[in-house]
Known about the structure:
Elements: H1 3-12, E1 16-21, E2 28-31, E3 34-38, H2 43-62, H3 66-69, H4 73-77, H5 85-95, H6 102-125, H7 136-142, E4 155-161, E5 166-172, H8 176-179, H9 185-214, H10 217-230, H11 232-238, H12 240-251, H13 258-267, H14 274-281
Parallel strand pairs: 1-3
Antiparallel strand pairs: 2-3, 4-5
Amino acid sequence: MDKKELIKYFKSLGLTVHTTTKARGHMGFFLKNRIDISKNTPENRIIPTLLHEFAHFIHSKIEPDMNKTGGTLNALFGNDGGKFLPELIRVTNFVDENSLCVRLYEHKDRVKDKIKEYEKIVKKDYPKFMRSKKFKEFDKYIKKSKARYLLKYDRVKLIEGGFFKRTAKLYTIDNIEKDFTDMPKAFAAYIRLQSYRKKQARISARINKYKKYYERPAELFARLVEGLYLDREWVEAIAPNVVKRYYELLDEGFYMELKHVHTCLRNELCLLPEADRLFVLQ
């Protein structure tokens, strides 16, 4: 199907479609009967992205507040819609590999290894050390040391001296032994361990943020529509139950204009009447 024909059909439904915007930093964006496709979207991704955003349009007619709430699976697939979540996630992982957060999980594993590495160093001198409990020996030492700032920041600049003569001293997590020559090795390791624990928390927060986004019913539904266009047979294989329910509701007209789009795509038919189609092709 030609993208121009698809856009023309969307416009015939009262949608405003733009293909030369930044789409708010995404490949596509839908809001209030407007679809934006980023000017940077690769050619082979334009039609899938248009269908993704069109699915949001259809969803907004089923649940008018879906942009704020994220929608519900029950509204999209019936009262037992929640049972389709695992299959919908599989489809999402197929359509958008970023949803797997592979790099973030790999980064998290590397950080975990560093935490274990520094924990071993601490336990050489303090066998009873536990991450979940206070490290009293360290707490007593660090109160008198400027290294205490490194517990909060990996890199900190301290301004020292009086009003007329001030000097700036830079302390970093990489130069602990050089800047604090009297610090026990176990304490330096503990500071680095705490730094990596903060990194671990930040990575976990990012993963949870992505997971929350990708598992919103609005996104799951849009990627189901997109996935059926990209590889119908594969999506039917990995998500047979939700696809069956989707087809049933589609045939009943529940998804409104999506039925016409799906039928035309599947059977290679024209979306528009002959006169309108000729106008698009000119």
